[in-house]
Design brief:
The glycine cleavage system catalyzes the degradation of glycine. The H protein shuttles the methylamine group of glycine from the P protein to the T protein. By secondary structure, the chain is α+β, with helices and mostly antiparallel strands. Helices cover 19% and strands 35% of the residues. It has a 6-stranded antiparallel sheet with strand order 1-2-3-9-8-5. It has a 3-stranded antiparallel sheet with strand order 4-6-7.
Amino acid sequence: MKTLEGAFYTKDHEWIKADDGNKAYVGITDFAQDSLGDIVFVDLPEVDSEFEKGEVFGAVESVKAASDLYMPVSGRVIKVNEGLVDNPEYVNQDPYENWIICIEMSDNSQLSELLDSKNYKNLCDGE
């Protein structure tokens, strides 16, 4: 299972990586895409939508199942990965390169409440 250097993880298998100040990218983890199988659809939120930590911001659907996406921290969507509309399978190819949304975090101190790579790997080993 691959993780992303410098990223934080949720127990629901989303990752978030701060980029510049309060800007961060959000996607699903390698563990999640592998568990879901071939992804056939990604439901993206509208740009400028605001979400609280833990709120559903979208969904991914695979040939096996559908899974809600949960916001790792509170924030406002500033960009969505439009390439996933026509090519949702890109998430299977590289879930870290093919982020789902880019947000402006409203409270980046919430990152400290998430899992680091080591603790995330331990979580996945238990599943």
